[in-house]
Design brief:
The N and C termini lie far apart (31 Å). The radius of gyration is 14 Å and the shape is globular. The protein has helices spanning 3-19, 35-38, and strands spanning 45-48, 57-60, 85-88, 95-101, 105-111, 115-116, 131-135. A hairpin with a 3-residue loop joins strand 4 (95-101) and strand 5. By secondary structure, the chain is of the alpha+beta class.
């Protein structure tokens, strides 16, 4: 296990332990008019790094089980463990489910169609996503 991945896993374990009394990790709703949503093309699920906009965005049309080979547009930075915001402009009704590790392991949060996360994910979720799975409507509370 790489040092960086080890740190991220240790951070996640601490967060999950801290939230253990809550029972289920949930995310609060966000407005569809959040800036992240406006810069995500229709039909796509988008992730952003730091400053939102075309230079720091990666668009997904389908699930991606490993962000390790994905790059942000224009600046070429690696998407893996560098996501600070997400948006879902799905036209097919798919929720965007983000996970810590490749292969859709260790659920972090999800985004409903037509919605976005805050401009910067909460500290306990920031820079953690490593994979994206598109799912039909679920009972999980999403952004």
């Amino acid at each position: 296990m790489s040092t960086r991945l080890g740190i991220k896993v240790a951070t996640l374990i601490g967060v999950v332990g801290m939230l253990g009394s809550v029972g289920v990790m949930t995310a609060g709703p966000a407005s569809a008019s959040a800036p992240a949503h406006r810069t995500c093309p229709s039909g796509y699920h988008c992730v952003f790094k730091d400053v939102l906009g075309d230079n720091q965005r990666h668009n997904y049309f389908n699930s991606d089980n490993d962000f390790g080979n994905d790059r942000f547009t224009n600046n070429g930075g690696v998407v893996d463990f560098n996501v600070t915001a997400a948006s879902n402009s799905s036209t097919g009704g798919y929720e965007s489910h983000y996970y810590l590790l490749p292969g859709y392991r260790d659920f972090l949060f999800c985004v409903n169609p037509g919605h976005a996360t805050p401009n910067h994910l909460p500290r306990d979720l920031n820079d953690l996503p490593g994979s994206l799975q598109l799912r039909g409507e679920t009972s999980i509370r999403c952004y």
